[in-house]
């Protein structure tokens, strides 16, 4: 990956990222027992420390996963994750939002494991009305196994922004005006999982899972959910988007829903451009061999 052009630039960028990491690791304590439930894994998913920690494990028999008790239609979700350490080749750790059904909507963070000493691949994707194929992949500028880091999804009617420790790395805008479907009508739950995908996850499937290293464990720490909760009565936010969002953190009850109209300011845009220049390793919008009949329309939009 390319680095800033001068030693001073590199130092400034590193200090900025460290400061942002420190700030985001101060997320309020939250209660997994209240907001989530382990959905599969036959005991391999565990809620610990009075709801402050959730761990998922993977062995040769099964992985594990959990999901939110509530559904949401738009929101700002932060989740702290510490990934599988050591030789994690073949494993995939996930954190995503998804609706149910064939024509589902989905917003994905997937972390593709690797051999010891090799970087994780952060894989992102957006599905709308059952259509995905919008993959963008990144390497990270830190070791995601050494400590917890905050991975965030901001989802409002205008855009979806993926961020790591407050640094945006991807923005998917609402471009329905040019015929690109956008997730805006199907409520989604928050899901996470740890599973084996050694047929494709690491170096295209060339490196397989080393089961002598099992069980593999990923940890989920503090989280914050500022979102419009969806029930049988509809959304907790008004149609005019002027009412308060719900906050599902056990210690935070903010009524602010500024995220509903949030966009990237010039500073955030510069930070995102820097990450994409130096750490992006795949962009579907640059893969002309894959889309031989022409790139998807959003790729050509300004």
Could you give a quick summary of the protein structure above?
The chain has 302 residues and is mostly beta strands. 12% of the residues lie in helices and 36% in strands.
Word description of this protein:
This protein has 302 residues and is mainly beta. The protein contains three helices and 17 strands. Strands 2, 3, 5, 10, 11, 12, 14, 15 and 16 form a nine-stranded antiparallel β-sheet that branches. An eight-stranded antiparallel β-sheet has the order 1-4-13-6-7-8-9-17.
Ordered list of secondary-structure elements with their pairings:
Layout: H1 7-24, H2 32-35, E1 36-40, E2 45-48, E3 53-58, E4 64-68, E5 71-82, E6 91-98, E7 106-112, E8 121-127, E9 136-138, E10 149-155, E11 159-164, E12 167-173, E13 189-196, E14 216-231, E15 234-235, E16 246-247, H3 266-279, E17 280-283
Antiparallel strand pairs: 1-4, 2-3, 3-14, 4-13, 5-10, 5-14, 6-7, 6-13, 7-8, 8-9, 9-17, 10-11, 11-12, 14-15, 14-16
**What is the string of SSEs from the N terminus onward?**
HHEEEEEEEEEEEEEEEEHE
**Major sheet, described briefly?**
9 strands, antiparallel
Quantity of strands, as a count: 17
The share of residues in helices is: 10-25%
Task: Specify Rg, calculated over alpha carbons.
Answer: 19 Å
First CA to last CA: what distance?
26 Å
Name the poorly predicted regions. 1-8, 10-29, 240-255
- Quick check: average pLDDT? 87
Strand content: 35-45%
